[in-house]
Specification:
Elements: E1 11-14, E2 17-24, E3 34-37, E4 42-46, H1 51-69, H2 76-91, H3 95-102
Parallel strand pairs: 2-4
Antiparallel strand pairs: 1-2, 3-4
Helix pairs in contact: 1-2
The structure holds zinc ion.
């Protein structure tokens, strides 16, 4: 499904907490695809990923932040599965579905 070009967020608010989003290159020491640093309220996303993978990584890290904030103690497999499942709902459906979910229709 084709998507219109969207800008990458520099901030994301998660349960009342404002996280900065940084896009970091492998050359700058970012060895994982993403990293959520709860204490400093930073979500790091590695540059150079395919667009879908980058969005999946962003969602993955926001789920880590949800898990930590809500003391859910989700493990890595659960976080990964939730991110893949949620991104698939948005990717595999008409944009009207995401607009309905976000209340922007
Ligand atoms: Zn993870």
């Amino acid at each position: 499904m084709s998507r219109t070009k969207v800008s990458r967020p520099e901030h994301v608010r998660i349960l009342g907490r404002d996280f900065n989003v940084k896009y970091t290159a492998l050359d700058d020491g970012m060895i994982t695809l993403g990293l959520m640093q709860y204490n400093s309220m930073v979500i790091n996303i590695r540059e150079g990923q395919e667009k879908l993978e980058e969005r999946d990584t962003f969602l993955h890290e926001t789920i880590h932040a949800l898990s930590d904030t809500m003391c859910l103690e989700l493990n890595e497999t659960q976080v990964t599965a939730l991110a893949h499942g949620l991104i698939a709902i948005f990717e595999d459906n008409d944009p009207a579905v995401s607009k309905y979910i976000t209340g922007t229709n």
